[in-house]
Amino acid sequence: MGATRLTRNRTTLAHQVRYALRYPERVPAHARRVTRDAWLRLRYGHDHIAYYRAVMASDTARGAESAVGHNPSRDRWTQIGRMQFDYLVGHGLKPEHRMLEIGCGNLRAGRLFIDHLESGHYYGIDISPDILIAAQDTLVREGLQDRLPHLTLTDDLTFAFLPDAHFDVVHAHSVFSHSPPHLIEECFAHVGRILAPGGFFDFTFDRTEGREHQVLHEDFYYRTETLVELAATHGLSARFMDDWEALPHRQSRMRVTAMPDPASDPGSGP
């Protein structure tokens, strides 16, 4: 595993002092995030979906690109989208596949998936109505209306409105990095139902080998083994994607598939 992906505990005073000394120009922006966090926590309490929806509304007001990444430059937005697309195509995404993208945002990668897949085979969901409106703008700008993608607002990760065994590929880029443990478990508890036989679920996450922690209720850091074990409790097999580590992205990546059903194995009987 590449050391570049490992994250130290960003909640420690020592880290915060070092960061402020190294990047003094970023201190005002961080102070604004602290103030926003305090206000939104007071307003929404422990409802993380409502909390993060408000975060997305705030960020989208500054620009759709900045709402789907800390670096708001258009070039970086394009680069990250292309990286996601190239990786998935290189790892088995075919035009005939049906794909669900969790946290589709303003279609940073989705615009490429939509163009690659057969018409109607892309389904994007997001908790933010503001970013889905920006996604519609992306469709128009890219001339992808005739691909008939589905773009749907959601309130949770139960996928209750989606059919069983339907999606060959489920993808969540930079979603678990903003999700507390109970939302990740909710996703693991239900994603197996919507995966087609032989399908897989790829997700990125902020990785630490130290204490798991969160920063301002927006950024969450997990140990690899925590996610592997959590997936297993819901009948899923998760593996670390080592080759992703060579790419220019700060998050790590895992792939989840359904564990074989022992009852379906003729040799598994007594």
Automatic annotation (TrEMBL):
Pfam families: Methyltransf_12. GO terms for molecular function: methyltransferase activity. Keywords: Lipid metabolism, Methyltransferase, S-adenosyl-L-methionine, Transferase. The keyword S-adenosyl-L-methionine applies. InterPro entries: CFA/CMAS, Methyltransf_12, SAM-dependent_MTases_sf. GO terms for biological process: methylation. It comes from the Bacteria. Residues 100-201 form the Methyltransferase type domain. It comes from Streptomyces phaeochromogenes. This is Class I SAM-dependent methyltransferase. Belongs to the CFA/CMAS family.
